[in-house]
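Lab notebook, bench 4. Continuing the backlog of folding jobs that were queued last week. Each job is logged with the same field layout so the records can be merged later without manual cleanup. Today's entry covers Sugar phosphate transporter domain-containing protein, a 119-residue chain. Filled in by technician R.K.

JOB TYPE: sequence-to-structure
TARGET: Sugar phosphate transporter domain-containing protein
LENGTH: 119
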Amino acid sequence: MEENVVGITLALARDDVKIIWYLLFNSALAYFVNLTNFLVTKHTSALTLQVLGNAKGAVAVVVSILIFRNPVSVTGMLGYTLTVFGCKDINNVQRGKVSVAYNAADLYAADLYAADFAP
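JOB STATUS: finished
OUTPUT FIELD FOLLOWS
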């Protein structure tokens, strides 16, 4: 961490009062990001929050490519494409559009079957 952060901030605030408004705006945004994360977790699940984080990363990369013309490798594009399709697939499973291949009874029967052949 930089030394004398408070002193540097006060010196900048003396030169330009707008920095105080920037800091307040940044603090408010950080608060609302944390509040949103809490509410998403409360009303959905931690998995949904993780999927949203992955989708946000992919969107940030696309925006950075479009605005700043940042180069992306073929491997990177493949990874972001898989991320987007994974988010879409998890969304479809959570909404019930796709059935999960195994239910609890099938998994229990498979465990019993495997136990018959265990040494």
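OBSERVATION: The chain has five helices and no strands.
SIGNED: R.K.
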